[in-house]
Amino acid sequence: MCHKTWVLCLFLGFHSTPMLAEGKLLWEDCVWIGMERNGNLGLEQMRSEIFPILTKDKWKQYLPKLGVHYFGIFSKNQEQIDQEYRDVRLQIQQLLYDGGETEREKQKIEIRRLIHSEEKKLLREKVFKSISFSYFNSVKRLLVDSIYQLRSELYHWEEKKRKKESELGLSPKGELDQRKVWEVDFQSKKIHSESARKLAYLELQQAMSLLPGVNFVLDTGLTERIRIFDPNNIKTSFDENHPIRKKARLQMELAELDQESLDNDWKPKLILGGYLGKNGNAGFPLQNEIYGLSFGVQANLGGTSFQTNTQNGIQSEGNGIQRIPGYGPQPVGPGENSFQSGSIGLFDDIGRNKKIFDSKMSLLQAKSEWKQSEILVLNQIQSTEIRLIEIYSKYNLYLENTKSNLYQHRFKKEERNQGIISEIEYLKSEEDVFIGFETLLDHYFQYLTTALELVLLIGEDPFDNRYYKLESKTVPNDLTIVLEHWKQNTSSENRKINEPKLKRTYPFLMEDPYETR
Prior knowledge:
The chain has about 525 residues and is α+β, with helices and mostly antiparallel strands.
C-alpha cells in the first residue's frame, strides 16, 4: 500500500524528472494509477451514490406523513359583526395499501442500481484493457528498440574498424558501397523503431490519464515474470455473469416490472388520515379542541380515475370551520361533523393505450437484446479462442525460426571472421535475426492482448488465469533465453542478470464489495 500511495502521489504532483530505477512501473502499477486517475470511472462512482438516496425516498412511502397546518379567517367590515377565527392542527396520513406499487418501485431502483453496476464493470474492463494493451505495446516497442540499439552500438564500433581497413586498402570499395546501402536501410528501420516507441509511450500516458509532460520509467521485465500456457490444452468455460449478459438479463427484469406495474394499476390505494388540534375565535391561546379521522380510496379503472374521501371530526366547543375539498371552508358547530366526497373522471387517461403498447414493445426489445447479448458474448469467446490458438501457434513457429536464425548467425559470424563470406552476407544474416525478433515479439504480445481479452470475457483474474500467469519472480522461458543469447552476441561484456521482481497485487478491476460475478 505504501508503494501504491507513493507512486500515486508522485504523479499527482506532476513531477517532470524520470523516476529512479527502483521506481520503475510494472503492469500492475500502470493499471492502478490509470484507473485511479480516470475521470469517467470517478464520475460513474459519483452517479452510483444516487441509488441509496432513491431507495431511502421510496422507503418513506411506508412512513406516516406528518404536517402542521394553520388556517385563519379575519373579517372587519362596516355594518357587519367582526369575525376572527384561527385553526392549528397536527395532521397525519398513512398509506395502507397501494397494490404493491411502492414495492415494485423499490425493486426497479435496485435493478437500475445493478444495471449501473454492470455498466461500471464494462467501463472498468474497457479502461483496464486500454491501459494494459498500451502497456504491452510500450514494453514491446522498448524491447524492439533495445534490439536495434544493441545492433547499432556494435555496428558503429565495426564501422570504425571497416573504415580503417578501407583506408589501408584491406577492404574493397564495392563492398563499402554495399554496406552503405545496408546502413541506410538499417537506420531507416531504427528511426521507425524509435518513433514507434515514443508514440507507444504517449499512448500509455493517455491511457493512464497523465499529461504528456509527466515522465516515468517502465519496467521491461514483463517477459521474465509472465508464464504463458498452451491454449490448445485448455477447455474454455463461459461466464454466466459477464457484465454484458447480466446487464441484458437485468434490463429484461426491469421491463417486466414496468409491464407488471401497468397491469396492476387498477388496484386501489387506501389512505388513512387523522388530525388533532385546536381552534378559537378570540386569539391565542386557542380554546376549542378538535380531532378527526379520514379515509380515502384512489383507483384507475381502464383509464377512468376514481377517487373518494370520507372525514369524521369532533368539535369540542364553540364554532369551527371544516374544509371540504372542492367546496371550500364550511362552518360547523360543536359535536360530530363529517363529510363524504367522490369523483369519477371518465377516460381522463387518454394516453393509456399508448402506455400499454410502449410497455409491450419495451419488454419485447429487452428480450431481443438479451438473446443477442447471449449470442454476442458466446461468439466473442469462441472467436477470441480461435484467434488465440492461431497466434500461439504462429508464436511457436517464429520462436523456432528465431532460434534457427541465431544458430545460423553463429556460423556466419565464424565464417566472416575466417573470411569465408563477405561482410554484406554477414549483415544480411544479422538482419534476419533482429527482424525475426521483432516479428516474434509482435506475436508474443499479440498473445498476451488476445488472452487478456478472452480472460475478461470468461471472468477470470487478469493476472493469474489458465492462459498465462504473472509470477512473483523471474521465470525462465524460451523468449527470454533467445533474447539473452542475442544480447550476448551483440555485446562485448556480460550483462548482469536482473534480480527477481516482486509482483504488486491489486484488487481485480477495483470492484465494489457488492459487484461480484
